[in-house]
Amino acid sequence: MVVSFPFIPVPEESWSLLVFFGRFHPLLLHFPIVLVLLTLTFEGLSIYQKWRGNQHSKLFDFSVLIGPLLLISAVTTLITVVGGFLLFQSGEYGGQLIKQHLWGGVLLMIALNSAAFFYWWPNRQVKKMIQAPYQGFLFLAGALVIITSHLGGTITHGQDFLTEHMPSLRPDKPSPVELKEPAELVVFEDLIMPIMEDKCQSCHNQFKTKGGLVLTSYTSLMKGGDSEKLLVVANDPLQSELFHRLILPLEDDERMPPSEKPQLEPFEIDLFEWWIQTGGEEKMVVGNEPSDTLTAILDQYLPNLYQSERLKMRQQNELEALTKELTSLGEDIGLVIEQDQEYQGFFTVSMQMPPALITNNSIEKLRSYAPLFSKISLPGADIDDDALFTVGKMTNLRDLYLPKTRVTGEGLTYLKDLGLLENINLSNSELSNTGILNLVHLPEVKTVYVWGAETDSVMLQSLRNHLPETKILEEEGDYF
Ligand code: HEC
Q1: Is the CB of 355 inside a 6 Å radius of any atom of ligand 1?
Q2: Whose CA is nearest to atom 33 of ligand 1?
Q3: CA of 478: how far to CAs of 360, 378, 400, in Å?
Q4: Is pLDDT at 194 greater than 80 in this prediction?
C-alpha cells in the first residue's frame, strides 16, 4: 500500500474538503521532522552507551523512549505525507521540485516503517541480526528527513531563500535592456523573454507547470511540454507549437494565453513569428540593419518595452515596501496577506492556520489598501453582509471566497462596481432567498457556489434564466 501510494485515485466530489486537510501539511510537517531527529538522537545516545560497555552505570536507558517515539514518528509522517499528497493532487503545485519532495516524503515513510518493522521483530532469537537493518533504516530516515524538508523549504521560500538577503554587489543594477543599443539586443533574451515573463510565466514556471511546460529559459522552452510537440521548428512558425498556440482563435481551448488572461499584442505575435522564421536561435541579435519587418515590429515594441522596464524597476521597489507593510498589517489583524503569484502587483488575503477570529472590523482595516487586493478567502470567518461594504471598495478583486460565514447575500449589492470579480463562493453560508437575488446586480461574475444555502431551486432556476452568463453551482467550490 505504501509503495503504490502516489497513484491512489482520489474521488472528485470530496475534493475541496481533502484539499482543506492538505492545507494543514505545512503545519503538520514540523512534527515528523522533530520526532524523527529526536528518535535518531536517542538511538545514537543508546549506541554510544553500549559502545562504552558500561551497562550498569548507565545514566538513563534511552531505549525506553525509542519505541514510543518511533511509533509516533511513523504515524505523524503518514499523516503529513497524506496531506502533502492531497496538496499535490489539488494541482496548485507542480514541477520537478514538488515531485522530488513528494517522493522524499514517501521514501521517508517507507524507511520509517521498515525501521519500526525490524524494531518490533517478534523473534527474540534473531534480535541481534535485526539490529543492523533497524539502525540502517532509521539513519536512512534521518537523512531523508533532512533532504525532504530542505526541498520543501525551497518550494515554499524559493530557490534563493538562504541567500536572498546577502548584500548585492550592485544594488541598483540597471535594467539590461535599457542600456543596450537596439542593434545589440538579443532577440530571445531581451525581446521574447519579457513577453513570456508578462504573459506566460504565471502558468508556466518551475512551480506551476501547466501542460508540463516551463517558459523561463531557452532550454526549458526547447524541452517542450506534455504533448511532446516541437515548440520551435526553425524557419517554420506554423509547424512550431509555440506560435501555433498564439494564433488559434480566442475561443479555442488550446489558445495561449487562455482567453480570460491578458493577450499578446499583434506586434508581439509578429515578433514570435519573425524570430522562428529566421531560425529561432538563442543568441541571434537585432543587428545594424534589421529587416523592414523587424524594424516595423520594433518601432511598436521598443517604446513599450523600455517604458515597462523602467516601470518595473520603480514598481519593484514600491512593491517590496508595500509587501512589508501589508504583511505586518495582516499579522496585526490575524490574516495572511501575500503577493498574488498570478496577478503581479496585487495581494491575496487568506485565513491564518489555525484561523484567528476575523470579524467585520478586521475587514474594515483593509479598507485603505482596498484596490490592492485580487483575492479574498475567508472560510469560516465571523463576518456578515456588512463586511461586503468594505469588499465593495476592492476594485481589482477577482475571487471572493466566503464559505461558512454569516453572509446572507443582502450585501452583494455593494459589489456591483467590481468589474473584474469572477468567482464568488458562498457555500455553507447563510445565503437567503432574497439575498441571492442580488446577484442580478453582478451580471459579469462567472461562477457562484451556493452549496448548502437556504435557497430554493425555483429561485435558483429563475436566477439562472436571468443570468445566462453566470454559472450558479450547487457545489461546494474552492475555499482558497
Ligand atoms: C492561465 C494560465 C496560462 C497562461 C497565462 C499560459 N498558459 Fe500555456 N498552458 C496552460 C495550460 C492549462 C496548458 C495545458 C493545456 C493545453 O495543452 O492546452 C498550457 C499548455 C501550453 C502549451 C502546450 C505544451 C505541450 O506541449 O503540451 C504551450 C506551447 C503553451 N501553453 C504556451 C503558452 C504561451 C506561449 C503562453 C504565453 C503567451 C502561455 N502558454 C500562457 C495555461 C496557461
Answers
A1: no
A2: 256
A3: 22, 11, 10
A4: yes
Mean pLDDT across the chain, nearest whole number? 85
- pLDDT at 153 > cutoff 50: yes
Q: Per this entry, what is the length of the chain?
A: 480
pLDDT band of residue 150 (cuts 50, 70, 90) is: confident
Distance CA 9, CA 52 (A): 51
Place of cell 480570460: 260
Residue pair 147/104 in contact by the 8 Å Cβ criterion: yes
**The three three-digit cell numbers of residue 27, written as one number:** 503545519
Query: Any idea which residue has 491512489 for its cell?
Result: 8
> Which cell goes with 462?
429563475
If phi over 0 gives left and psi between -120 and 50 gives alpha, with beta otherwise, what is residue 106? alpha
Kindly state if the Cβ of 258 falls inside 6 Å of ligand 1. yes
Is ligand 1 within 6 A of the CB of residue 204? yes
Gap between the Cα atoms of 3 and 109, Å rounded:
10
How does pLDDT run across 367-388, given as a tens digit for each residue? 989 989 999 999 999 999 999 9
* Cell representation of residue 70: 518511533
The grid cell for 448 is 457562484
Mean pLDDT of 306-333: 85
| Other beta carbons less than 10 A from residue 479's beta carbon | 23
Cell of 452: 448548502
Cell 455553507 belongs to residue? 428
CA angle 229, 197, 96 (to 5 degrees): 55
User: Exposed, middle or buried: residue 439 (CB in 10 Å: 0-12, 13-18, 19+)?
Assistant: buried
Distance CA 318, CA 343 (A): 16
229 in contact with ligand 1, CB cutoff 6 A:
yes
Q: What is the mean pLDDT of residues 173-183?
A: 67
- The preferred substitution site among 193, 201, 204, 238 for testing ligand 1, maximizing ligand atoms within 8 Å of CB, is 204
**Cell 538513563 belongs to which residue?**
60
Residues 6 or more apart in contact with residue 97 via CB below 8 angstroms: 151, 154, 155, 206, 207
Ligand 1 mean position, distance from CA 378 (Å): 30
C-alpha grid cell, residue 203: 502558468
The position carrying cell 531557452 is 218
Q: Ligand 1, from 213, 226, 269: best to mutate by most atoms within 8 Å of Cβ? A: 213
What span, in angstroms and rounded, lies between the C-alpha atoms of 191 and 281? 13
What span, in angstroms and rounded, lies between the C-alpha atoms of 353 and 23?
A: 9
